[in-house]
Specification:
Helix content: over 70%
Largest sheet: 2 strands, antiparallel
Strand content: under 5%
CATH class of the largest domain: Mainly Alpha
Number of domains: 2
CATH architecture of the largest domain: Up-down Bundle
Length: 467
């Protein structure tokens, strides 16, 4: 992006991509509604309910089922890493960002609904993990286009707040969807046909509920936002030629703005740590601090509420202090909170004249972890939206997805390694808590890589022509 082409204050981040128009509250709410709806897939299908169903005894050996699910998701992650930048690039060049958001969202909805036919039995396990893996691929493709739309509904003055609002809607949407699933299907509060556990009908209906929830709340953005016009250019390159164009653009970005590449690397590292906070938070709560399943869910609900509040507050700070400062502050807060759980969580502790149990320590500092996760995620997206050249945000968010997938092994590996090292050194039942150390190492590494990266306000990125 040439300096003279930069958008003046008060204009949209991507004037060429969005076209003339006015950013309205209705468009912002419609955009954020997609985040609200997508939480049904994230929270219900892939985190708390359906994947738990797939790895239950109903499908045979739990370890074997878990291994098959992990392998399927690994293949899905590889597909996303290889294809996300190209799908984002082609939606930019073809002027079909909204179209492909709709196509990929419908694909996720259909694949999710088809999970209704995953009956309890080992012979249905392959079908179940395949549907979930494919849905994950299309969800990531949709997310690339959705994130790229942030430039269409924000200005440089409010991009942080709008990104934070979207993240908050996702957290709250997940809470509402989970509560409805619990009340209607898992632990129904009244008798109806969907409460039947015969052939796991109640759990299979959760898939139908999640599909409808996602697609209904995805509709507003498809009606409220205009399609991105196709740029005036030569014929769009073939799919394979798009990779050559991608590599040339990465090289051009590195030459003119290497800190953009460094930010992609830094964010990939610390985002893996952020994901691990939620992934292993429940595991540590149950395994180390003795939380029951209901207590874990209770903590998860409060954690999502706190994360939503953090995302909104962080968004306001983002627009005033800049996204880099918000991310750095959040990562420092995460390191402090995680370290407190590690140091004070093993037994009753005398702190400031008060005696705190390990459970109390986890509640206090665990919620603090959630508080800092929200703004770190939100400002990371806002940071990249500020970096994106006009008309190229889809491709850049595709790279964002790819780099995230490329290092997604870091936190799980260091979590497991830290536990393995701690086993012979600590007492029985205390090793799992040391897995927190592995997560903290990942967050610290992301922070250290981020520190020398320039603020996006100073970014000048070259655009490589499509032709």
């Amino acid at each position: 992006m040439n300096p003279e082409s930069a958008s003046p204050p008060g204009t949209r981040l991507s004037e060429l991509a969005a076209g003339p128009g006015t950013v309205t509250r209705g468009k912002i709410v419609a955009w954020a509604a997609w985040d609200w709806g997508s939480a049904a897939f994230n929270a219900v299908m892939t985190t708390f309910v359906f994947t738990v169903y797939l790895t239950s005894e109903a499908f045979g050996d739990k370890d074997a089922a878990s291994a098959m699910l992990g392998a399927a998701l690994a293949v899905a992650g590889l597909a996303v890493a290889l294809l996300a930048p190209i799908t984002g690039q082609r939606s930019d060049s073809g002027g079909g960002r909204k179209k492909w958001l709709g196509v990929n969202t419908v694909a996720v909805g259909i694949l999710t609904a088809l999970c209704f036919f995953v009956f309890p039995g080992p012979e249905f396990l392959l079908l179940g993990v395949t549907l979930i893996a494919l849905a994950n691929v299309f969800f990531e493709f949709a997310n690339v286009n959705y994130n790229a739309m942030l430039a269409q509904i924000s200005t440089p003055q409010n991009v942080g707040r709008i990104s934070g609002f979207g993240w908050a809607m996702g957290y709250v949407g997940g809470i509402v969807a989970l509560l409805l699933v619990l009340q209607l299907f898992v632990q129904p509060s009244f008798d109806w046909f969907g409460a039947s556990t015969a052939d796991s009908l109640n759990i299979r209906l959760v898939a139908v509920f999640s599909a409808l929830w996602f697609m209904i709340f995805a509709l507003p953005v498809l009606f409220a936002l205009p399609e991105v016009p196709r740029p005036n250019q030569a014929e769009r390159p073939s799919f394979l030629a798009s990779y050559g164009l991608l590599f040339r653009r990465i090289a051009a970005i590195y030459r003119t703005s290497p800190h953009t590449i460094f930010f992609l690397l830094a964010s990939a590292i610390f985002r893996d740590g952020l994901a691990a906070v939620f992934t292993f938070g429940g595991v540590i709560a149950a395994g180390t601090f003795g939380f029951s399943l209901s207590q874990v869910i209770f903590f998860a609900i409060f954690g999502n509420i706190v994360a939503a509040l953090g995302a909104v507050f962080g968004g306001f700070l983002d627009d005033r202090a800049g996204p880099k400062r918000v991310i750095i502050g959040s990562l420092i807060g995460l390191l402090f909170s995680g370290s407190a759980i590690l140091v004070f969580g093993n037994a009753d502790q005398a702190l400031f004249g008060l005696t705190w149990s390990g459970t109390t320590t986890f509640w206090i500092f665990g919620l603090l972890l959630c508080l800092f996760v929200g703004p770190a995620q939100s400002s990371s997206r806002a940071y990249l939206a500020r970096l994106a050249p006009d008309g190229e945000s889809g491709e850049l968010f595709g790279l964002y997805a790819t780099t995230g997938r490329a290092v997604s092994f870091l936190a799980p590996t260091l979590f497991a390694l830290s536990i393995a090292v701690a086993v012979p050194l600590v007492g029985p039942g205390e090793a799992q808590r040391w897995g927190i150390l592995g997560i903290m190492v990942v967050l610290l590494a992301g922070l250290l890589v981020l520190l020398p990266v320039k603020s996006p306000a100073k970014t000048v990125i070259a655009v490589v022509p499509h032709s």
